[in-house]
Amino acid sequence: MSSRVVCALFLVGALLCGVHAGRTQRFSEQESASFPAQWFDQIIDHYNGETTDTFRQKYYVNDQYFDKQYGPVFMYINGEGPVWGPPQGDTNEVVMLAQKYNAMIVTLEHRFYGQSQPFSDLSTANLRYLSSRQALADWSHFVVNFTNHMLPPPSRPSTHGITIRPVFTIGGSYSGALSAWFRLKFPHISVGAIASSGVVNAILDFTAFDEHVAEAAGHACADALRRVTALAEQAVQAGGAQKDALKTLFSATTLVDDGDFFYFLADSMAEGVQYGFQDQLCNPLVAAVVANASLLPVYANYTQNVWTSSGLGVPAEYATAWQQNITIDSSKADRQWWFQTCTEFGYFQNAPSVGAIRSARVNMTYHRTHCANVFGAPLWPDTESTNEYYGGNHTEATKVIFVNGSQDPWQKASIVTSVSSLEPAIMITCNDCGHCVDLRGCPEPGAKCADQGAVDEARLAISQFVAACLYSF
After folding, report:
1. Beta strands in 424-472 (DSSP E)
2. CA distance 199 to 195
3. Which residues on adjacent β-strands are paired with residue 73?
4. Is 382 noted as a catalytic residue in this protein?
5. What is the DSSP string of 52-114?
6. Is 408 a catalytic site residue?
7. How far apart are CA 285 and CA 357, in angstroms?
8. What DSSP character marks residue 153?
9. Across all residues in the chain, what is the average pLDDT?
10. Which of 408, 414, 432, 438 is catalytic?
11. In this predicted model, what pLDDT tens digit does every residue of 127-186 receive, in sequence order?
12. Residue 123 catalytic?
């Protein structure tokens, strides 16, 4: 989810695996030609037995590798963004697993994102039905109906007189957390789960995020990023023409609130490390420091020609006014994800008191004010309650594997140490091993990671874990 979490698999219909700073990455609206959209009548409020109101929730099926007699169902859980097709493509880990285990891939669009809209607008009143708990109940209701009524019965012995087909969930980032939580809350429905960069620990004051970005970037790059921030702070403090010139340089003139500007500046820095673009981020800046060249134009060039061109974001999405817009646009997800962070998760990536890369203006006051301004109400997340419900970084679900990349700052909200043989954790280590690296690779479609062997080794371990879950079913 940067402050938001979206796991993009770099394919039609998938998200850019990542939690981002409160806004979500840009998404293509190109519908999958090979796999048509299908629709399911979903319950709006699973926790009110007195209402039967429903909405149309979009889903996709990839059955290219499916063995109708014995094949399992892989439920790819989607998070904070639209979906335009199921996982597809031979380099996609979900597809690779489906090929190996003759599985059907099914993916359901998250409520309130993309075209799965319960209401005609995104007003704060309507968004009260947007929560991880409602989303998990969506999956439960959908999975039971799909496996019981939309699939042929498997040719396997029945269990207690009921013939069932194994369901295994896969997700990355926020949807990685959902994958783990689904197994935790509905162990009778699924046989196992992959939580890639699964952010299961709700953190209110997430200063560890910035600290990890600095550590992963290395001393020289972190120092250069701090200099960029300091120069930007000087220009904003000077005001007038200097501040206007700064925002023009970064194509960020719509960021009227200076806090929004500094959030954008910090997020674009963090995502370079988070998604494996560390060399493109760091090398020009370090070279500029050595040459005593001006740093702001160098960094602005990165934001425009790497960060934006790679689909990670655009400055306009950080504006309070942008996020206040309640009009439904299937390509946008910023308002919805901010609502989830302001009501459930926090993940507020504040500047630490020592060694911060981001501006000190990105602090708890900024986040509290931003939540109130965007939603017109004093929303604030009870992260302790969220962690009590799910377990936080002590989530005790069996048959869940947690996978993280060494450079990814979101690992600080995940589980990185194996709890038991039934809840193992893998850390994939290399210079560009970032968010959801096992699912999406490094860092562009078809590209090799700096240590591709580390990724391949992890994928083998993941596959063996999947097999153990399926075959012990």
Report:
1. 425-428
2. 9
3. 104, 167
4. no
5. --EEEEEEEEE-TT--TTT--EEEEE--SS---S---STT-HHHHHHHHHTPEEEEEPPTTST
6. yes
7. 14
8. P
9. 91
10. 408
11. 999 999 999 999 999 999 999 888 887 765 544 444 478 999 999 999 999 999 999 999
12. no
